[in-house]
Amino acid sequence: LNELGQLRTIDVRQTDGVTYIAITADDGNHTKNVGSIRDVPLHKDVLDAGFLQYVESQKAGRLFPNLKPDKYGILTSSYSKKFGRDLRDVIGVKDKSRVFHSFCHALKDLCRNVDIPRDVHDQITGHQDRSASSGYGLGYSLATLDRYLQRINTGVQLPRKSYQIPNGIGTQEASSQEE
């Protein structure tokens, strides 16, 4: 959650037709370890939901500017608590072990279920293999990570939204499927 919360608009990038987020440890951004610094392709469902239009609607700076740091400087602390409350009170999930981080566990299961090799999903999630051989090479290319990630069928159709684009461009309609 913290990796997402500290994203900036410049961290959403495209290279060779792959749209991805660059998780960095610079300009005040932090990661758990060196292996957490990585490029993560965005799943087609996220893109289809209008994520790039959302990014375009934001001013330069933090991608999620409404997040405010707590007394320890953690941007996502309040959001994490709100998410948990909404999950229980609005959506009706009563299991208190289900939290935002549960998405990471779900992604690992989805990867295993479509035969994505462990070292591939470890690179996507920023997990490190502690074996001696894991330190060799630069890892998988962005195109390879994307090809594997797109295997996943989430079974979820995210609602599309319209976003106000700054600089007088007006409203960009992402879709008519707005809910």
**How many strands, which pairing sense, and closed or not: the largest β-sheet?**
3 strands, antiparallel
- The class by helix and strand makeup works out as alpha+beta
Estimated radius of gyration: 17 Å
Backbone shape: globular
Mean pLDDT over the full residue set: 80
Residue fraction in strands: 5-15%
Order of helices and strands: HEEEHHHHHHEE
Widest beta sheet: strand line-up: 1-2-3
The portion of residues assigned to helices is 25-40%
What tags apply to this protein structure?
disordered C terminus; two-stranded antiparallel ribbon; single chain; 11% strand; three-stranded antiparallel β-sheet; 5 strands; alpha+beta; 7 helices; 179 residues
Write up this protein:
The chain has 179 residues and is of the alpha+beta class. The protein has helices spanning 2-5, 44-48, 51-57, 77-91, 102-113, 118-125, 142-149; strands at residues 12-15, 18-23, 38-41, 163-165, 170-172. The protein has a three-stranded antiparallel beta sheet with strand order 1-2-3. It has a two-stranded antiparallel ribbon with strand order 4-5. A hairpin with a 4-residue loop joins strand 4 (163-165) and strand 5. The longest helix is centred in the middle third of the chain and has 15 residues, at 77-91. It is globular. The two termini are 25 Å apart. Mean pLDDT is 80; it is low at 165-179.
